[in-house]
Amino acid sequence: MADAEPVDPKNYLEERCKPQCVKSLYDYERCMKRVENDDSGHKHCTGQYFDYWSCVDKLLQSSLISLNDVAAFNVTSLP
């Protein structure tokens, strides 16, 4: 078991957080549809993109803090 590769829970937790940010995702997708026909190249959806990922990151942060608290409890509760 000592040779097992450590697993990064970030991707798993991100996928679990995404459904809670569906409003931001829909806003981003609607913006992308509006912008796809822009020939000037001046329109973009950067704000909506960052809003979506900020939502995911905020939820991910609280999930990681919870995991860290559980791990710390498990280590400190050992005899």
From TrEMBL:
Per the record, the domain of life is: Eukaryota
GO cellular component annotations of the record: mitochondrial inner membrane
Coiled-coil annotated spans: none
Q: Tell me the disulfide pairings in this chain.
A: 31-45
Any one Gene Ontology BP term? mitochondrial electron transport, ubiquinol to cytochrome c
Q: Where in the cell is it found?
A: Mitochondrion inner membrane
Membrane topology per the entry is: Peripheral membrane protein
Read off the Gene3D superfamilies from this record.
Answer: Ubiquinol-cytochrome C reductase hinge domain
Q: Per UniProt, which keywords does this protein have?
A: Disulfide bond, Electron transport, Membrane, Mitochondrion, Mitochondrion inner membrane, Respiratory chain, Transport
Report TM segments.
none
- Keyword Cell division assigned to the entry: answer is no
Q: Does the keyword Ribosomal protein apply?
A: no
- Enumerate the spans annotated as Ubiquinol-cytochrome C reductase hinge domain: 8-65
Q: Which Pfam families match?
A: UCR_hinge
The UniProt function text for this chain reads: Component of the ubiquinol-cytochrome c oxidoreductase, a multisubunit transmembrane complex that is part of the mitochondrial electron transport chain which drives oxidative phosphorylation.
Belongs to which family?
Belongs to the UQCRH/QCR6 family.
List the protein's name: Cytochrome b-c1 complex subunit 6
Say which species the protein is native to.
Answer: Panicum virgatum
